[in-house]
Task: structure prediction
Amino acid sequence: MRIAMIGAGYVGLVSAACFAEFGVEVVCVDKDEGKIARLERGEIPIYEPGLDALVASNVAAGRLKFSRDLAGAVAGANAVFIAVGTPSRRGDGHADLSFVYAAAEEVAAAITGYCVVITKSTVPVGTGDELERILAARLPVDTFDVVANPEFLREGSAINDFMRPDRVIIGTASARARDVMRQLYRVLYLIETPIIFTSRRTAELIKYASNAFLAMKITFINEIADLSEQLGGDVHDVARGIGLDGRIGRKFLHAGPGYGGSCFPKDTLALAHTAQMAGQPLRLVETVIAVNDARKQRMADRIVAVCGGSVEGRTVAVLGLTFKPNTDDMREAPSLAIIPALLRRGATVRVFDPEGMAEARKMLDGVIWCTGTYETAEGADVLVVLTEWNEFRVLNLARLKELMRTPVICDLRNIYNPAEMAAAGFHYTSIGRPPVRPAATTAEA
Result:
């Protein structure tokens, strides 16, 4: 099998490397000359654990190549994956499909024999129909099929998600295309991965519905966390208590500062827009979007409240900038809303992230860039945990207390035990749990 992967971004690069690991011959194409040059030198333009080794081994084996020549990659390929970006369109939030359609035009001009054209990009329902029209304008209808094959990759664990997925969704009505897709995913058949064949439009909707549901779970537990604080409950116990119900499940019930990243924000917006255009608005999804946007601003208010109602002239140390750990992705990260809000209120903000500093520098101004956790904490009036990187879970609390001006921690990821933090002498607040004061202060009281 020989395939072309159009797009060497997050989805395209991970998918290309994983298909190559399956034994498929893959050419990964991108118009960005600098990106292709880096990949050919063995440099990975994104941070994803294990991806550098996977790419290197398959390049060495001759199964994975990189190129800017789309026509050359497509000619003779059994399948072509379109894995280009679909960012939110300015003004209405609908997915911008210009890159997808441009890729389809080029593919149509380059196909030399029967080929399956597959969307890996997240695209609104009906996009496959438009791709079919684009291809049919240039090609006989028996020389191609268009298939929807959405990705379900989590940043930070994408390789495992591709190699051992919960399911594979394939949208096509063509028996010929099904045979090609079965060959591509043969390795997953052998480990009995659920592979669901459905209509193309259904496959496109499954992707959006999945992300919207997960975004809803995050937003739900965040609101329950706020209610827990008001009523004296503990959101950790609430999440465990409801998550053990098999109908609900434990995943995505972790309270925090709101969801971000490359998928949930844009996909919920795109789904809401699609529903409105279809005359069937999704009020629940629309509310999730509004609540999540407001939550990020409320987190800034929470930090200000921890500082006594004002951060004017105060130093705030922020640990973690990316939207989640094990990635350098800053897209829609809560830090991009929270930090500017603190700066506007007169705070001095010191920041550090293990992998996201280079990307963050493109998006944040007016902060003090630090090289490590303890440097960030020096002289701080409050330390804020924004991303739950593992290295932040094992801090030397005694050293931290000595470095800070005042021992105040605002943990927006709930990575520490409140009682242990109180025993270590910290004023500690988290999400959905009662705040604690230093043990000594409590004793004196």
User: Anything to note?
Assistant: The first helix runs from residue 10 to 21. Confidence is low (pLDDT under 50) at residues 441-445. The chain has two domains: 2-198, 199-445. Residues 2-198 form a domain with the Rossmann fold fold (CATH 3.40.50.720).
